[in-house]
Amino acid sequence: MSQEYNFAYLDEQTKRMIRRAILKGLAIPGYQVPFASREMPMPYGWGTGGVQVTAACLTPADTLKVIDQGADDTTNAVSIRKFFERTAGVATTESTRDATVIQTRHRIPEEPLTEDQILVYQVPIPEPLRFLEPRETETRVMHALEDYGLMHVKLYEDIARNGEIATAYAYPVKVEERYVMDPSPIPKFDNPRLESAAIQLFGAGREQRIYALPPYTQVVSLDFEDHPFNPSKADHPCALCGADHTYLDEVITDDQGGRMFVCSDTDYCSRRQADGHRGDMAPPVLEALS
Amino acid sequence: MTPLLTVRDLSKTYGGRIGCADVSFDLYPGEVLGIVGESGSGKSTLLNCLAGQLVPDGGQVVFDTRADGPRDTLIMSEPERRMLARTDWAFVHQNARDGLRMGVSAGGNVGERLMAVGARNYGDIRSAAIDWLGRVEITEDRVDDRPTAFSGGMQQRLQIARNLVTGPRLVFMDEPTGGLDVSVQARLLDLLRGLVRDMGLSAIIVTHDLAVVRLLADRLMVMKSGQVIEQGLTDQVLDDPQAPYTQLLVSSVLQV
Amino acid sequence: MYVAVKGGEKAIDNAHSWLAEERRGDVAVPDLTVDQIREQMALAVHRVMAEGSLYDPDLAALAIKQARGDLIEAIFLIRAYRTTLPRLGHSRPIETDDMACDRRISATFKDLPGGQVLGPTFDYTHRLLDFKLAAEGEALADTAPIAPVDQAPMPRVTEFLNRDGLIQTEQASDATPPDMTRAPMAYPAGRPLRLQALSRGDEGFLLGMAYSSQRGYARNHPFVGELRIGKVPVSMEIPELGFDIEIGEITVTECETVNQFAGSKTEPAQFTRGYGLVFGQTERKAISMALVDRALRWQELGEDNVGAPAQDEEFVISHSDNIQATGFLEHIKLPHYVDFQSELELVRRMRLAAGADEVKEAAE
Q1: Domain for residue B44, yes or no?
Q2: Which of A49, A287, B67, C62 has its CA 20 to 30 A from that of C231?
Q3: Structural domain boundaries enclosing B116
Q4: Does A116 lie at the interface with B, CB-CB under 8 angstroms?
Q5: Distance between CA B241 and CA B214 in Å, rounded?
């Protein structure tokens, strides 16, 4: 089946076109580079941008990890990982450390990334100004002229209405004091880790945009001096590995209001458990090690 | 003294039709210039050309910038012109809806210009907004309401506050009292006169209402068919009009 | 004790097998063949080709079978297949003047050279369910001729008007048009890109847009100047040979509308045009396209923008593609629990801050 398609599905011409867009994006951090997004065999909004960027980055020697909501086992992550197993035949892994390319939706892995890694984000709406100004023609001018007053008006309105900045995910950032960028719908808890040793690439297929953060790029979350950015999360430790510094999913355990909190990054959590860390509701040690 | 604004030979045509032709004048700091004429006389075209909202066919609009002294705004780069538009200039539209963000609270509307020029302290921005709402007679408890909940006169006052909050040096006004009830107009005019005097604002006001210029303008330009047909001190032009058209204009008002 | 939910991979495999079973339906009923779909569901095949932007009736029929009759899903299959095809070159522009018409009508002239040819249309059928079709072994009625034998030349209706200067002249151009599948869309897009986007846009969306223009949101008083459906040859220049050769034949639907006249003191009144061209027999779509094209030309024709959706190029183009739209719409089925969790935390904290006492009292 796989030999009917080129390596990683896309033809070489298309991959070159995407690589040019990626290089341009890396040269102008945070700037949205238009690219001629192709139709992919998965629906728009399900990661076509990320898949195209990953396809353009992969080499046969790469090891790919795909996560969605932090987990390797969510259906869309499984589906995308299978797609590349089939069309590129690359090795895949669930281990953040062992991966050379990681495609993600909605999370940054807990484990700090290295200079040898590429993190590819799936982006639904690349334009941070979109919900303030629906017109592409206008927002491009606003970016060009650094006309970002409106962005702060949104934050002002949040505080005026709710007492705090009511943006919990896709929290806008300013890159190298120039472009305002949408970090994709990651929880704001992840924003500090946008400053990373890895190359970070953002692909929006339907909206035909690619943007990028080169290693060690300065990324500042927008805020006010007297209402500073606060990367908060649920105030609990993980019930499985006991971590108190990770982003947690809330799991409903019964219909009596019972709930527990567990790491959303499944690889990180199981690694900690293997290292002997235990939370309140962790399985007994022997079982976990077997 | 250097004029704040020096306009030379400004012209704009629409196809074969004249919008405004060869307009020249100087505006000095602290001075208010009224431009009057009937609909289609070219006064709005002229105002839009001056404020950078229309591109004229020819001429110069030289503004005395804070940083670099006199500069022709028509050959400035777009970023420079936008920066000017949100710092030293202000534009009050006839229809407040055109000049406000209707989906944003009154406080956010006033704060936008401050944030656009780098204000990043929520408390300071909010205090400035409340202070300015007070100056245009909008009470503090309305600061989080949207303009959609305001009356026409309040919307217009909010638009004025939003424009003046950054302390602009030149305000363009397009029929600022148009479309308002007579009693509301009087209150707004009163407010505008106070602000202009207190802040030492320079302003260019386009209107067809001679009562507005009588109250606000130091000098007057009368336009007809795109041409300036008479200009001078306001009282002088209104009390002793020279051009037949101005005489007609003045007498028609007096008859009302 | 809690073990985190696993099994995404297995769930997907199971869903796929179930889907395959459901697609086949009751095995006591004979399997539907691709040939049957191509021949008997021809209009569905045409829509899939048009919006999939790939002219291949067999593949379109296969896609419809695989998609269980969900046409947008079938269009999606075709688009995903199309994207993998190498681009060897491009054809010469097709010449619809020389179309072998199955249908050709004009609403603006009672009769005209070449005549009115109704062709295989639903137009004058009574919409009564024909229960004879439910009976098996349907026999073809042998009453009517299938196609006119020697077709008389069918000159273009708009050319009659053009010759007398009564309709606005389209500027001819030999420029290579941009290709929306090879370059990112940028606005203003301009008419060539606009027409491409409309031609592969969703039939329902364009129908709604066109209908809104008829109902007064940017009215442009359209008449169907001419609608023609038929086969046209496709030819291509082969560089090695140095001349054109015919590589096949496609069915297309073309609609030219004659719209309200524009004019001023300086320019005499003239009718204006809208244009639609779509793969296959797809006349609802072609007429819609012509109306929307016309509405989008307001600037070029010196009309006012009345703020109608159909006048807004960026709005129309960025929302007309059903594959983009359906993908984004349906992606909200994907897990969003990380985002939801962060909002949940925020709402809890804000509720806590704003009147914890009140909540407590209410609970008691």
Answers
A1: yes
A2: C62
A3: 101-167
A4: no
A5: 14
